[in-house]
């Protein structure tokens, strides 16, 4: 049994916040944000939490594939901004879409989360035990943003996207993967540190950190442009595919300059790299499936066409993950 992507879907909350609107909240400006990141606007969720964004994206992709929620056998949600620590976002999505009591769980690999989840789901579908698998990436990043910290607040947005996998008796679609983590650099991007709280002790653990997302922007930038091109080269080698043979590279949408630097290092034209951070900012685990859904909806990628794509996530953990797929 092999896993194949048979549908894509995405959902953005309706409130669009252009850079100019952030100028009213903090000392920043449209020109700085655009020139450093490429971002022009983001969508922020007023009332819909992560599970609702994911649920709405899931319903869209099921409708497109004409598959009932009752046929879904597995739900995986990648998120670093769940509604609760428990229940998992995936359990809430299961209820929201009206799926059966099937296996549902979250994974957290920050901006690499969707690619991690896709890798896990592919193996589970391959086992023959799960026919239809929903793989979602969803975030309400605005929950963990310090809206007074201009160095992070301008970068992120909310949204969700995903794919529906089906187990089929066809040739392999997931050609290769290259997936890593480096916990030694984990503290260069953190959010919501939960401290110890022994009721018999007067102290908590030594690491005192903010509830909000904190990051060393330079370190993350350098990590991205060093590790990602090496990972993509490795992926192409494992998948026995020339870099130029890949139709599109859909990278995590953190920053236009990062995508440009990666393209340059790989000696590939920017026309092979799709971007949408201009409109949505960095939506962490949601960025790749939202982009994939847009490119499929635009007709530039066709499911079942044999076109080749590379999906690459990179970010908190630190983590980085690439998958080469023949659609
Ligand atoms: N508006 C105006 N000025 C700002 C803003 C802002 N929003 N933010 C910072 N500045 C100022 C700084 O205070 C600094 O001023 P100073 O020189 O007077 O001290 C100046 O701009 C330059 O700041 P730097 O942080 O050095 O700017 P840099 O060129 O490194 O760009 C950025 C910052 C865009 C965050 C960059 O480091 C980056 O893209 N890093 C990648 C991080 C990232 O994308 N993380 C997302 C999460 S992880 C992931 O998804 C991979």
UniProtKB/TrEMBL annotation:
Pathway: Lipid metabolism; fatty acid biosynthesis. Keywords: Acyltransferase, Cytoplasm, Fatty acid biosynthesis, Fatty acid metabolism, Lipid biosynthesis, Lipid metabolism, Multifunctional enzyme, Transferase. One of its GO terms (cellular component) is cytoplasm. GO terms for molecular function: 3-oxoacyl-[acyl-carrier-protein] synthase activity; beta-ketoacyl-acyl-carrier-protein synthase III activity. Residues 105-183 form the Beta-ketoacyl-[acyl-carrier-protein] synthase III N-terminal domain. GO terms for biological process: fatty acid biosynthetic process. Catalyzes the condensation reaction of fatty acid synthesis by the addition to an acyl acceptor of two carbons from malonyl-ACP. Catalyzes the first condensation reaction which initiates fatty acid synthesis and may therefore play a role in governing the total rate of fatty acid production. Possesses both acetoacetyl-ACP synthase and acetyl transacylase activities. Its substrate specificity determines the biosynthesis of branched-chain and/or straight-chain of fatty acids. NCBIfam families: fabH, PRK09352.1. This is Beta-ketoacyl-[acyl-carrier-protein] synthase III. It comes from Carnobacterium divergens DSM 20623. The gene is fabH.
